[in-house]
């Protein structure tokens, strides 16, 4: 017998390896089936344990999948599709750098050729008015979401809402920017990371009146289920922007919970209640923060904070008694 390594396998290991065996390959010693052992990078006989090949290259993926859905999710064949691009990211982009694969600058003739290719590529990517509309709107959504610090899932949801509005022909008579802003505002509230109307209007190209009017129309026509904003959802962001402690955040949540049980929150602005609770909690924990600081972070007036924080403290005293 040749000087070849022989490895012994348990019956369980053999059964795991058998599905990867080649039917036309046989062991040179006993004629048994050959199986591939990916753990040791070897091809082994399932009968006698003879190692026929070793130090093989594993050409499979580095991840494991236990069902078809997980396999499709983990498989990487190009960039994933996304609703944040008008063509779902399936088209090709030509880079703006006039350099070749080695980083060398292109000649003037090659630069002219690449510029023409970019022009025609853009024309083919947006072949009709609907795609041009969608491209502009999704660009606006991405710009505003970046300015507001909203996560990617909110941008995806806003893109889906805008696509629905476009498909159901809700845009005639309304601006692209107005519908895009309304979609982003609705998506942020659905995801539990709301932004106030003033914050949204500050980064939008439309005024607050048009935004509120378009938002109500989009929600009504698309039957969007959007719950009233919870004041507690604003508290972590305000605490972070003011660099306050975890104890202050906990006290602010307790104040809002007391206000909810006493019915103080009814008919009040969620942003105003959240800002007032943060200010009141800072006073209770002896942290240095002024009404002006909270007002700038929350984009509301100091008068609102003064009125609301007194109501919150009274509700908290009532619960304590």
UniProtKB/TrEMBL annotation:
CDD domains membership: CYCLIN_TFIIB_archaea_like_rpt1, CYCLIN_TFIIB_archaea_like_rpt2
Domain TFIIB-type: 23-53
InterPro entries: Cyclin-like_dom (IPR013763), Cyclin-like_sf (IPR036915), TFIIB (IPR000812), TFIIB_arc (IPR023484), TFIIB_CS (IPR023486), TFIIB_cyclin (IPR013150), Znf_TFIIB (IPR013137)
Organism (species): Natronosalvus rutilus
Keyword entries, A-Z: Metal-binding, Repeat, Transcription, Transcription regulation, Zinc, Zinc-finger
Domain of life, source organism: Archaea
Name of this chain's protein: Transcription initiation factor IIB
Compositional bias segments (type: Polar residues): 1-12
Sequence-type repeats, residues: 139-222, 233-314
A cellular-component GO term for this protein: transcription preinitiation complex
GO biological process, one term: transcription preinitiation complex assembly
Family that this chain belongs to: Belongs to the TFIIB family.
Role description: Stabilizes TBP binding to an archaeal box-A promoter. Also responsible for recruiting RNA polymerase II to the pre-initiation complex (DNA-TBP-TFIIB).
Chain positions recorded as Zn(2+) binding sites: 27, 30, 45, 48
Region annotation (Disordered) ranges: 1-38, 67-87
Upper lineage: Archaea, Methanobacteriati, Methanobacteriota, Stenosarchaea group, Halobacteria
Residue ranges with Basic and acidic residues bias: 13-23
Molecular function as annotated in GO: DNA-binding transcription factor activity; TBP-class protein binding; zinc ion binding
Gene name for this UniProt entry: tfb
SMART domains in UniProt: CYCLIN
């Amino acid at each position: 017998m040749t000087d070849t390594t022989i490895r012994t396998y348990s019956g369980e290991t053999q059964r795991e390896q058998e599905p990867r065996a080649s039917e036309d390959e046989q062991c040179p010693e006993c004629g048994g089936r050959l199986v591939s052992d990916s753990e040791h990078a070897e091809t082994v006989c399932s009968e006698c344990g003879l190692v026929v090949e070793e130090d093989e290259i594993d050409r499979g993926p580095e991840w494991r999948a236990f069902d078809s859905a997980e396999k499709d999710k983990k498989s990487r064949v190009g960039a994933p599709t996304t609703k944040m691009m008008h063509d779902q990211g399936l088209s090709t982009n030509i880079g703006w750098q006039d350099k070749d694969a080695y980083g060398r600058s292109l000649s003037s003739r090659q630069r002219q050729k690449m510029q023409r290719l970019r022009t025609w590529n853009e024309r083919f990517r947006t072949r009709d008015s609907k795609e041009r509309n969608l491209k502009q709107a999704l660009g606006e959504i991405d710009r505003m979401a970046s300015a507001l610090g909203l996560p990617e899932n909110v941008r995806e949801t806003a893109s889906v809402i805008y696509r629905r509005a476009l498909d159901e022909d809700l845009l005639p008579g309304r601006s692209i920017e107005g519908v895009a802003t309304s979609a982003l505002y609705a998506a942020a509230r659905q995801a539990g990371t709301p932004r106030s109307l003033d914050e949204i209007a500050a980064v939008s190209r439309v005024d607050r009146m048009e935004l509120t009017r378009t938002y109500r129309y989009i929600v009504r026509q698309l039957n969007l289920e959007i719950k009233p904003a919870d004041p507690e959802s604003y508290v972590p962001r305000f605490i972070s922007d003011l660099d306050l402690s975890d104890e202050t955040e906990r006290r602010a949540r307790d104040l809002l919970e007391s206000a909810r049980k006493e019915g103080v929150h009814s008919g009040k602005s969620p942003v105003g209640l959240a800002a007032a609770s943060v200010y009141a909690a800072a006073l209770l924990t002896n942290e240095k923060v002024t009404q002006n600081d909270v007002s700038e972070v929350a984009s509301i007036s100091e008068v609102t904070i003064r009125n609301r924080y007194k109501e919150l403290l009274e509700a908290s005293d009532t619960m304590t008694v």
